[in-house]
Amino acid sequence: MKTYLSIIKIVPNFLAGDAISVGMILSNDKDYFIRFSNRKIRVAKSLVSDNKSFIDFFLTKIERKINEINDVNSRSNGLFEYPNRINSDYMRYLDNYNNNIIQFDPPKYVKEETNLDTFNKLFSLYVNKETELNILQKFNDLSQQSKLNVERKLIERVKDKVHTNIKFTDKILPTLYFNIDVDCIGLNGVFTGAKTVDFNQSEHTIQKEISNYYALTSMLENNHDKYGKANNFYIISDEPSVISSKQHKYWEKMKNAKKFNVIFSEESDMVAKKIEETNAGLFLSV
After folding, report:
1. Sequence-distant (≥ 6) Cβ neighbours of residue 97 within 8 angstroms
2. Helix (H) or strand (E) holding 112
3. C-alpha span between 139 and 283 (Å, rounded)
4. Are 22 and 103 in contact (CB under 8 A)?
5. Contact, 246 vs 232, CB < 8 A?
6. Range with top average pLDDT, 2-6, 9-13, 93-97, 167-171
7. What per-residue confidence (pLDDT) applies to 67?
8. What confidence category does residue 17 fall into, taking pLDDT thresholds of 50, 70 and 90?
9. 257, 213, 267: which is closest to 237 by C-alpha?
10. Contacts by 30-34 with C-beta closer than 8 Å and gap 24+?
């Protein structure tokens, strides 16, 4: 049987021709291998303004389809063939269906047999290679990209309206027993503020940062008689890199918390809009 592979790409900007290889399918029309690079998916999604949920849905759909085929083939003992093969025609169908957001390269035929060793070697060559596009090199550091998002979409927009990049100490709040950095905070009827939290840190560090942020916001609410009001406190955090980690589970839990709104760094302009809507302003003597 002939072995072929197809590279799966996310296209942040179709008109510019930018594309990032995020996964690969290897098959001989009987055995199928599929894998995605979570790191490169995160990079690509950070560059896509819309359709992030569609990307997750579509990649999950194709992976589930291939696993379904493998499961049927493993139980058939060669007596039956799965009727809906993932071949070049099916790839073209998928390519048309996803509206240029996700691309499937035309199948490339390879001489090696379809097995895990071959797959790992080709995946490393085609997907996990260190340099692919300038766009990937530029945004490979997601932590740095998060900082750029916050600075560009939030801080630059509100720096003349509210307190930005402020370090709270006991000199600002005499009852404060710790120091904490906050991206921005303003007041007008209600508070509007945001703090960036990196959920790729140790679980202890994350919990400490959020606990201190909770304590700070509660002190401010009490000191300004705003406790129980519809205050707008945000945590800015991109998704942790390891999906099955404790950090990721904690991030998911925080997304459902009542005290804070958890948003991605690329959504930082939501905080700026809220500051503008509430006409929040300076209120601290610093």
Report:
1. none
2. none
3. 36
4. no
5. no
6. 167-171
7. 74
8. low
9. 267
10. 30/1, 30/73, 30/114, 31/70, 31/73, 31/114, 31/115, 32/66, 32/69, 32/70, 32/86, 33/114, 33/116, 33/119, 34/62, 34/63, 34/66, 34/67
In angstroms, the CA 164 to CA 158 distance is 8
What does the pLDDT look like over 234-259, one tens digit per residue?
999 988 877 778 888 899 899 888 89
Question: How many residues are present in the chain?
Answer: 286
pTM over 0.90: no
Query: CB neighbours (10 Å) of residue 105?
Result: 17
pLDDT for 273 equals 97
Three-point CA angle 35, 38, 41, nearest 5°:
105
Please state the domain extents for the chain.
3-137, 142-278
Judge contact between 278 and 232, C-beta under 8 A.
Answer: yes
- Do residues 8 and 35 touch, judged by C-beta distance below 8 A? no
Express the helix, strand and coil content of the chain in percent, nearest 5 each. Answer: 40, 20, 35
Is the pLDDT assigned to residue 48 strictly greater than 50?
Answer: yes
User: Distance between CA atoms of 108 and 106, rounded to whole angstroms?
Assistant: 6
Quick one: which of 1, 36, 3 has its CA closest to 20?
Answer: 36
Please answer whether residues 259 and 182 qualify as being in contact, where contact means their C-beta atoms are separated by less than 8 angstroms: no
Cα dihedral 211→217→223→228 (10° resolution): -110
Please provide the DSSP assignment of 6-47 as one string: EEEEEEEETTTTEEEEEEEEEESSSSEEEEE-HHHHHHHHHT
- Per-residue pLDDT band for 80 (boundaries 50, 70, 90) equals very low
